[in-house]
Amino acid sequence: MFSLSRRKKSTSDEEIERQRYDQYALEELQLVKIGDAGTALADISELHKAPFLKYYDEISRKIEPGMNVLELGAGTGRNTSVIYRDAFNLTALDISRKSLALLQARLPSVETLEASMEEIPLPAKSIDMIISSGSLSYGDPGLVNKEILRLLKPGGHLIVLDSLNGNPIYRLNRWLHYARGKRTKSTISRIPDKARIRSLSLEFNNSEIFYFGSYLPIMEFLQVFLGPARANQINLKLEKRYPSKKNAFKFVLTCSALKN
């Protein structure tokens, strides 16, 4: 594991999140088998799985043998274990040392890197693809975007799954989590919005955005009467036939061919 010796003092929020995810890693270690790669979506309800499955699918469509891939905010490797193959070179980055230790115990072939997304100790134009699931809010947007664009080779790809700062129900839920001490204030203000998605997309020759969750508040209610499976079927049909970004709470962004 490579660890970056930071040249600046960590912000208080970053240190809080590092400690939080170190603790999460210790708790997860007690609950799962080290080699178990099938737990990525085990604790996610059927209604909430669609964006994750789309994220995995987009990565599998774009990735090629021999690529250098960087995963931002890899955590304990729950998503890493789904997408990793020996055919490409993967570096998993996170600020939590304990999370990365658990990831490497699960996936010894994956290189790990303990560092902030705001300052990544890798050479410019050295990465073919950057992937990220739910981690963009853990760094200053301007600095993280700058690092993404610095590291990618011309023609490189970016695939992101994250929450969207829009839906009022989920915004309230995030503030409740903050009030309960389960997340820091900066991670709320830094949740990606449509303006950030557009700014990243403009750096690439091609981009696609897929929105999820517009109908979830209704489906959460309906599943009480229809059951989770039936409610999920209806939700998927609505998402496919009437896609809506107005009230979406998650998105998958696929950017291809970084401009020179």
Describe the overall structure.
- This protein is α/β, with parallel strands linked by helices.
- It has a single domain, classed as Vaccinia Virus protein VP39 (Rossmann fold, 3-Layer(aba) Sandwich), CATH 3.40.50.
- About 40% of the residues lie in helices and about 20% in strands.
- It is built from 10 helices and 8 strands.
- The chain has an 8-stranded mixed β-sheet with strand order 1-4-3-2-5-6-8-7, sandwiched between helices.
- α1 runs parallel beside α4.
- The longest helix is centred in the first third of the chain and has 20 residues.
- The two termini are about 30 Å apart.
CATH level-3 fold name: Rossmann fold
- Average pLDDT, to the nearest integer? 88
- CATH superfamily assignment? Vaccinia Virus protein VP39
Number of domains: 1
Q: Which outline best applies?
A: globular
- Indicate the CATH architecture: 3-Layer(aba) Sandwich
Number of strands: 8
Q: Quickly count the helices.
A: 10
Give the oligomeric state: single chain
Provide the spatial order of strands within the biggest beta sheet: 1-4-3-2-5-6-8-7
Class by alpha and beta content = alpha/beta
Q: Class, according to the CATH hierarchy?
A: Alpha Beta
Radius of gyration: 18 Å
In short:
The protein is α/β, with parallel strands linked by helices and 260 residues long. Helix content is 42%, strand content 21%. It has one domain: Rossmann fold, CATH 3.40.50.
